[in-house]
Design brief:
With 390 residues, this protein is mostly helical. Among the domains are: 118 residues, no CATH class; 96 residues, no CATH class. It is built from 19 helices and three strands. A three-stranded antiparallel beta sheet has the order 1-3-2. The protein is elongated, with a radius of gyration of 32 Å.
Length: 390
Amino acid sequence: TRLPASFGQIAELSAILVQLKGESDAVAAKALEVRMKPLLKGKDIEEVHSVLVEEAATLLVAADKDLEGTFNLVLTVLRTASEEKIDAFTTCILETIEKSEIERTAAKLKILSNLFNALAPTSALRARVFQSLVLVAEQTGAISAIVPQLPHLDAWMAEWSLETEKRCELYLQISKALGAGGFTEQAFALRRKYLSMLPESAYGAAKESIVAIIADAIQTPSFYAFEELASFPSVKYLSKEPAGQLLTILVDSSVSEYRDFIGANDSAIKALGLAEEEVLRKMRTLALASIGAERLGVAIPYADIAKALEVETDEVEIWVIDAIRAGLVEARLDQLKETATISRSTYRVFGQREWQLLGSRLHAWRDSLSSVLSTVANARAGNTASNPTA
């Protein structure tokens, strides 16, 4: 049960408000003091709550050492207020903090965190406060403070009973902030959720966001999961757009086909904010992975790789090393014979053709194993025949 604040606490808060107001406007401070006196005398809690809502921005003037304590006192006074008053106060505080040009990062985040925890776990207002936390963290370069909370996000959304559109909005906002802060893996985890949850009715309105996600994935050096990205219905919706077409090429096309596409869509690619040479680098790395998947365990001549990647033969080793660093292949280079033997390769796409290739390899492995077993059996039989007493 939430107990009401004592009038001593209310009087203390009133004095703090008047003091803070007086630091910038003595006349306004006096007017506030005059207004508060009868409210305190008459114990008019509802009107005190109204004043707190009106003066929410004033509280941010407090010195860093007093700020958290002042806000905690406010939350104590407000905890028995009507939902309408709490909503109004929260909205005012959030807008003030978000627009404030004063840095005070730690203080802002602490206030927002305390406000978040003060609200009921099922309160939809928590979603709005969390959005503000993300925004302030992004603005002040402190997005790392949000990362530890990400595992709780889905459970919180369920508690807040957020509609699908609101969930998607929150996923997208947080993913953008994480991406800007260098948390690429966490950002794409939320973008996957956004793309998978986005309702079909919202595809059109979300087109710009979907295109931005595709473009960001393409230009992120460590991202190669293009088959997964292309599999989302919300992304397939853009299959005839330049962004969708480029994604399809990255999934399962050659360097030559990529060059043809760029030749016909140069302006569209630039409009996506992509650097052609950087995309070509990623395309070549993916093409090398495809060669490895098709010729696994075989010594591949540098000349074959150079032809597929459309590079000079003396550049092949650099491209193989790049693919190894990207985690797409494991390979051994033979500089004397000028061959590369790829022992493991990531499939760009796994469809009917890949299943057939895998089946052929399994059959070959089975036949090879049968041959070995037969040889071993024959050797044992021969050994037994030559040593009958053994």
